[in-house]
Specification:
heterodimer, A: Beta-Lactamase, Heat Shock Protein 90, five-stranded antiparallel beta sheet, five-stranded mixed beta sheet, rod-shaped, B: alpha/beta, Rossmann fold, 9 helices, 12 strands, 41% helix, 21% strand
């Protein structure tokens, strides 16, 4: 509590003198109790107005005046009645105690008022940080409050481990250090710096700190750095430190909010782009088919043995397959490809496959081996989509096989699954690539340039198989070549 | 075959041209319509022998065009489809279309399918024909017997009904639903519908030389089955 000004001491000296004069005039008619009460009132009022020191001094002087002027024999400190000492000492003690009690009460009231003010300020700040429209404005609001409250020259918030956009230094090493270690860094007036071992500010004078870098943490990860700077060394009181710690917390929340907002915005943009892309693909692949039909038909009309016209027709077919694959990938992703899981005979699947690929591959021999001695194998799967998977696998086998080697299909049952293996004598897949071949748009770095295709086939094949609770897997073939195996859930026939 | 009249309903001039050229050599008379309503009017006025219908018409859904024409005409309808899903093809076939080809189709495919439908339509003689012969199959409807390459083959009642329905409609694509309705109508059945494909597999093993390379019963994946016409079967050799 600040000391009372001199004029207040003078005023209370005069009041005491006046009161004493008055009491001296009336002393014949007054009892000691009256006088004690009047002096106590003065001491009480003086303490309230001027604090503990004034109260104690007023009490001591009153004690002397009481004795000198108001207790017989007058004008001497001797007393007729020894019991008067009791009155005087009691008075002295009471005034001292009163002064002390008032002082303490007042201190507590002041502290409570300060705390209330602090809480108020935090509440305002928190509300400001949360109510402003954009998270970036919240950050600006917080830095403004900190700068004003701590009388700083500089207060900045750095996010994403890089200095803020208008930051003059491209990357202050102390900002980077603080962000990486999550601990406080201090730049001293003499140009040296101190790297502390804690995330909190040290108390008191901070080694002539000109700048302080405070990590902003949310859930134990550092998401930003609060930079404080002043022209003269920083000297923060415990209250200011408390304030700063609380603000750093708000700032961390605001930074986190800014980050989440940015992320949400980005995801929204990405989703929109993805949706547009899918819609575009669907519409383009549909619209491409009509001109493809015309091209094919015209090429066919012109053909009559002309190899160039045949090439045009073949290329139109290839384009069509690519368009179909793109469309399927889109549908698979958006879940629009309605699959019909029906009881189907493997005979029918293989029959449809042979019908589709027969004569399509320059006379490539395709053999089929049925295991289980020709028992009718049935499964629960979508015939049309499973057929597409197999056509794809056989096309691949044909593409990569040397001329004159057959593509061999083996059909069997393994436990609860049917397995249809397509084997070729091509180069196989290097072990390093075996994990990647099922990814969309993957092309083997060593793929022949004329092999064609957009690298979609295997990705679609596997997704289609998995959508039917089956799978497509790859294995190297003993003696050279590749085996791609389609597995599909098997089904049991009721006994007739 | 006397020169038939074909009606092409397609809004794309290029596709109409493709169809026209495909039948030029057959001496067919080709009528063209660019919209569904124009096509329906022409079909009613000219009574064509075959209608080639594109599904992507701007003024009316293909299913409605099929239904409208089927109300007063038995002329076979061949559908041209592009993006259309298998479900849509099934709906069209159930609405009265006889067959479909998917864009981009080849000219020979279009010709083959059209010829099969035309022959079927012309061969539709007086009802009650008692014998159907396709390739090496002879189905005697009165005696309820089947011979495959002159060997009698025993069929179960369901297999018999299935085969008869397909052979009577040779050249048409029959949907699973259609076959089920014809064969299991009036029969007690539990969940027999899901075994339709299994019955077909058994039937194939009885009539086809190699059931993995069927020449009689062709699978239209996701849609149904199509029995080869006698001419088609002969062309496979």
């Amino acid at each position: 509590m600040p000391r009372a000004p001199v004029w207040r001491w003078l005023v209370w000296g005069l009041v005491l003198a006046g009161v004493t004069l008055l009491l001296v005039q009336l002393r014949g008619r007054l009892d000691k109790a009256h006088i004690t009460l009047v002096f106590l009132l003065v001491v009480l009022a003086g303490t309230l107005s001027g604090g503990r020191a004034l109260g104690l001094v007023l009490g001591a002087i009153s004690f002397l005046l009481f004795n000198w002027f108001l207790l017989p024999p007058y004008h001497t400190f001797a007393l007729n009645d020894p019991l008067d000492w009791l009155v005087l000492v009691a008075f002295l003690i009471v005034s001292a105690v009163v002064a002390e009690i008032l002082h303490r009460l007042r201190g507590e009231a002041d502290a409570a008022r300060r705390r209330a003010a602090e809480v108020d300020r935090f509440a305002t700040l928190g509300a400001e940080a949360l109510k402003v429209g954009r998270a970036e404005e919240a950050l600006a609001a917080i830095t403004d409050v900190v700068r004003a409250e701590l009388e700083l020259d500089r207060c900045r918030i750095h996010t994403s481990r890089v200095p803020d956009r208008e930051g003059t230094s491209p990357a202050d090493p102390l900002v980077t250090w603080t962000a990486e270690h999550g601990r406080v860094a201090i730049l001293r007036a003499d140009g040296t710096s101190r790297l502390t071992g804690t995330a909190d500010l040290p108390e008191g004078r901070m080694d002539d700190a000109l700048s302080v870098f405070l990590p902003l943490a949310v859930r134990e990860s550092t998401i930003g750095v609060l930079e404080l700077g002043a022209r003269r060394p920083l000297d923060l009181s415990p209250a200011q430190l408390r304030f700063l710690t609380a603000l750093a917390h708000y700032a961390a929340l605001a930074v986190e909010r800014a980050r989440l907002e940015a992320e949400a915005g980005r995801i929204e943009v990405l989703q929109e782009a993805d949706r547009l892309k899918d819609a575009l693909l669907a519409s383009v692949s549909h619209d491409l088919r009509t001109p493809l039909t015309t091209i094919k038909a015209l090429a066919h009309e012109m053909a009559g043995g002309d190899e160039r016209a045949l090439a045009i027709e073949e290329e139109a077919n290839r384009l069509n397959r690519m368009v179909a694959n793109l469309l399927d990938l889109t549908r698979l992703k958006s879940g629009e490809l309605g699959l019909h899981h029906e009881i189907n005979a493997v005979d029918e699947l293989i029959g449809a496959l042979l019908q589709r690929v027969s004569g399509a591959f320059d006379g490539r021999e395709i053999t089929v081996r049925l295991e289980d001695g020709g028992t009718l194998l049935v499964g629960r799967f979508d015939l049309a989509q499973s057929l597409r998977i197999l056509v794809n696998l056989v096309e691949n086998a044909h593409k990569y096989s040397p001329a004159g080697t057959p593509v061999e299909i083996a059909v069997g049952r393994a436990g609860a699954f049917l397995s249809i293996a397509v084997a070729d004598r091509g180069p196989g897949v290097p072990a390093t690539e075996a994990g990647s071949i099922f990814e969309p748009f993957y092309r083997s770095p060593g793929a022949l340039p004329d092999v064609g295709g957009a690298g979609l086939g295997l990705a679609i094949a596997r997704q289609l198989a998995r959508a039917q609770e089956g799978d497509v897997s790859y294995a190297a073939r003993p003696g050279g070549g590749a085996i791609f195996t389609l597995t599909l859930p098997a089904a049991e026939l009721p006994s007739e | 075959m006397p020169s038939p009249t074909l009606l092409v309903i397609d809004d794309e001039a290029q596709i109409r041209r493709v169809v026209r050229n495909a039948f030029k050599d057959a001496g067919a008379r080709i009528l063209e319509a660019a919209t569904a309503s124009q096509g329906i009017d022409l079909a009613a006025a000219e009574r064509p022998d075959l209608i080639v219908l594109d599904l992507g018409l701007p003024d009316m859904p293909g299913v409605d065009v099929c239904r409208e024409i089927r109300r007063w005409s038995v002329a076979p309808i061949l559908v041209l489809s592009a993006r259309h899903s298998d479900e849509e093809k099934v709906r069209l076939l159930d609405a009265g279309a006889d067959d479909y080809v998917t864009k981009p189709f080849s000219t020979s495919e279009l010709q083959a399918r059209s010829r099969a439908l035309l022959r079927r339509a012309q061969g539709r003689g007086p009802a009650g024909e008692s014998r159907i012969e396709i390739g090496g199959l002879i189905l005697d409807l009165t005696a309820r017997s089947l011979t495959v390459d002159e060997n009698p083959v025993h069929l179960t009642p369901i297999e018999w009904d299935l085969l008869r329905e397909m052979m009577v409609n040779a050249g048409r694509t029959l949907t699973h639903q259609h076959l089920f309705g014809q064969v299991w109508r009036g029969r007690q059945f539990g969940n027999a519908q899901q075994y339709l494909r299994v019955y077909v597999a058994h039937l194939r093993r009885k009539i086809e030389v190699d059931s993995l390379r069927p020449r009689y019963i062709h699978t239209e994946p996701g849609v149904g089955y199509r029995f080869a016409t006698a001419a088609e079967f002969a062309a496979q050799d």
